[in-house]
């Protein structure tokens, strides 16, 4: 049976030990935030080559062994800080209005990569591409971010069977590639009209591909 076109919807006993609830805040959370904030600030100010774990620890007010114990390499630390930032600033929520959700997602991606920290992270990934550790951490970062955005793409399909057959990564690439092109190559403005047209074009292309598979 052919694939249907993809369309957007609108709309043990008492004696058993109890598990210990994990604390969501406290000292560990404060240390983590301080380390990540310091990492990103130093990266934006001085670049990846000048970044050291020792400098991050000093800026965060923690012992360097604390940083090394959690993030044994500079590349791993930058990836963790980047993932934490992206999870905060890139919108992947669903509201029942798929087009609005996709526009919000792409707008937040654009805002992120146009910020000083976002640009520094992207430039570090490009400039240090020959570093095996950077390549590995960069690949893991994008795998996790694509997975997070993939749930948003799937929720934007009416036909669940068609959604299961979607090449979700390809749809995400169609959405974000034009933004990266303008941000890092042409320098053309990334305004709301551009974001909306990019979303509409990606959705249209996805639907046409589904039709051609019939």
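Q: What amino acid sequence fits the structure above?
A:
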């Amino acid at each position: 049976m052919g694939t249907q076109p993809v369309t957007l919807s609108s709309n043990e006993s008492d004696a058993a030990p109890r598990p210990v609830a994990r604390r969501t805040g406290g000292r560990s959370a404060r240390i983590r935030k301080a380390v990540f904030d310091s990492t990103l600030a130093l990266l934006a100010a001085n670049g990846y080559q000048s970044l050291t774990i020792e400098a991050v620890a000093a800026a965060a007010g923690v012992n360097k062994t604390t940083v090394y114990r959690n993030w044994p390499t500079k590349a791993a630390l930058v990836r963790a800080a980047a993932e934490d930032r992206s999870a905060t600033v890139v919108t992947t929520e669903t509201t029942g209005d798929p087009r609005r959700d996709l526009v919000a997602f792409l707008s937040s991606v654009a805002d992120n990569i146009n910020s000083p920290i976002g640009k520094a992270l992207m430039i570090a990934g490009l400039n240090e591409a020959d570093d095996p550790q950077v390549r590995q951490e960069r690949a893991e970062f994008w795998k996790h971010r694509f997975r997070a955005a993939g749930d948003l793409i799937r929720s934007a399909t009416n036909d669940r069977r068609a959604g299961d057959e979607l090449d979700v990564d390809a749809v995400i690439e169609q959405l974000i590639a034009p933004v990266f092109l303008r941000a890092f190559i042409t320098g053309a403005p990334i305004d709301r009209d551009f974001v909306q047209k990019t979303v509409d074009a990606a959705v249209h292309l996805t639907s046409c591909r589904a039709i051609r598979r019939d």
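Q: And what stands out in the fold?
A: The radius of gyration is 21 Å.
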